[in-house]
Prior knowledge:
Number of helices: 10
Amino acid sequence: MAFNLNQLDRRRFLRGSGAALALPLLGSTLPIAAANHDGQKCPRRLACIYYPDGVPMPLREDAAYQDWSWFPHGAGTEFTFTNCTDVFEPLRHDMTVLSGFSHPEARKVHGHRNADQFLTAARIRREGPYKNSISLDQVYAEHVGDQTRFSSLVMSTDGGIGTPRAAQTLSFSRTGRAIPAEQSPKRIFDMLFVKSDADAARRLAKNESALDEMLEDANDLRRILSPADKLRFDEYLDSVREAEIHVQKAKDWVNRPLPTVDRAKIEADISPESPRLYVQTMLDMIYLAFKTDSTRVATYQIGRENGAGVSDRLARAVGFNLAHQLTHDTKNPGGWENLGKYCRFLNEEFARFATRLKETPEPAGTGSMLDNSLLLFGSASSAFHLSRNYPLVLAGGQNMGFKHGRYLNYAGANPIGGAWRGGPEPYQKEITHDDQPLTPVFVTMLQQLGMETDSFAGVTGNFPELLS
């Protein structure tokens, strides 16, 4: 097949008999306006990744405070990570840790209702009519979604939408309608393929590599690429091949039925590698979607609140049965360390994903894909069921003007923490320290992503301290 580079764009596909694979962004195939290396025409991407149930918050007098507190020690540029977060050290200058931020409408809400509000900041009460509003990702998707094959990629480990006040999706439409999340890495992977006949579908169902059907087309294209793009193209094909293998392994884990009698008795044949591989593969799907410019907006809810669903078994990755139970067991000896090890696993996988973006050069301009991608990672709980002081990481976006290498601590010297030993839960106690509202951070993110806006969820103002 003969290729004309002038006819290739971000929607170009490699084609086999009945299937098609999206091309990665390549400098050789970009329109001149997008390849001028001025840093302004690069695709600007947003990924929001959420985990439930909070993080280790031992009190200062607790022996576990120094090693297993989620938040770093220190402030500004002078801070040290703990055993829970030291996996972020190689990314120190590509990320900012935030403390003391939350949504005002959520501060007196039970921690098991926080996923609904994390990206919307909506007023959602424990009882009465349920009404949500548009989420951060969908605001940006409305702005940029018509430039890609998919306006956004919405994922969660449990899939679907869940129920009101127990969302299994982070994404909500302009009318506040929950957008169903996809949980199958295979179905997400297949979104990169256009299957135009039944034979192609049967081949993919038999786990045969879709790339095999496209190698002739790939070789024709490769011959006319620049040397730099040949390297990027080969790396991309390797990434897709690797993803195919991981997808097949990961789908076996997510498709396992939940135990119906005693959820604590997890199936013995689920190896620790299975949940870890699953999380890695889901994050790899975002990487591939960004690399092919199939979308510039993605959300992934790693787990739902309240310890229900398949996501609660992700704790198997570090030798525990149920993730949510770890937050209740912090009152027991070694409890903080156990919860810290689980959170470290989540941090490690986020760091792996961010590092992969950092190591991928941006074909449409200067820097790396991470420099042109904004990643929000965190939870809407800190201490036990406490809907305040969200543990947050904002990474990437240095080509958008973000200044990193800092710990911005607005929580004060003694944030609420400690194990819950009965009585009123922390979220029920009187608020003695007002957090910063998180919405100005959202406004800043949207502005630097290229939107002209000065408000989010009815709140006006940005947070310029995040910028250079």
